[in-house]
Amino acid sequence: MTLSTALKLLKSRGSKRNVEGMKRYGIVPKKAYGVAAPDIHAIAKKIGKDQKLSLQLWSSGVHDARILASLVGEPERVTERQMDRWVRDFDSWAVCDSCCTFLFRMTPFAYAKAFEWCKKKEEFVKRAGFVMMAVLAVHDKKAPDTHFLRMLPALKRGATDGRNFVKKAVNWALRQIGKRNAELNRAAIHAAQEIARIDSPVARWIAADALRELQSPAVLRRLLKKLRNSKTHEMR
Hints:
Blueprint: H1 3-12, H2 16-22, H3 37-47, H4 51-59, H5 63-72, H6 80-89, H7 93-102, H8 110-117, H9 123-139, H10 145-149, H11 152-158, H12 164-178, H13 182-196, H14 201-214, H15 217-235
Helix pairs in contact: 3-5, 4-5, 5-7, 7-9, 8-9, 9-12, 11-13, 12-13, 12-14, 13-14
């Protein structure tokens, strides 16, 4: 599919009402068609993976096209230079989260970029670092616990950033790490308790919200069941 065809298809699925609705969620891009997420995913499925088109879609500057770019990009062909260039263009949590979830986390540079970006000053670059930690915790099933234990100090350092999209990403990452298994749950709870002692209302909110979920009966039951299943499997 050509860039022109892809943009025409996106525009045909767009809605001014959706563009207005995006504002309620803090998404105010310079240019957007207002295409619903399911429609963007359907278009991506129709296109398949196409790195050249992905780069062209991103260069268009259209919000919906950039989300589509993250869906059709080829992780094995993404370079560090591309990731650094794109992350500087992030202007909403929607584009940030889409790129991290559907493209960047599958590159060989995912963990390195998570640690690098979470130290940056720009709101959406910093968010990207913590979002990478969250989505890696969810999706990288075979990663060792040490990968995520190393993230906890970074989350503590980021816990006093009061910017909405940063603090929510820190909270998200802390919760997802703590839901991987029983050991990481204990480590994340300990980290949250340390964050709660920081003299900062932002830190206290992050900690309280994370602890509410990480110590909930539902999460603890699921992790206990997972631990028992793991031990049973080892005994076979």
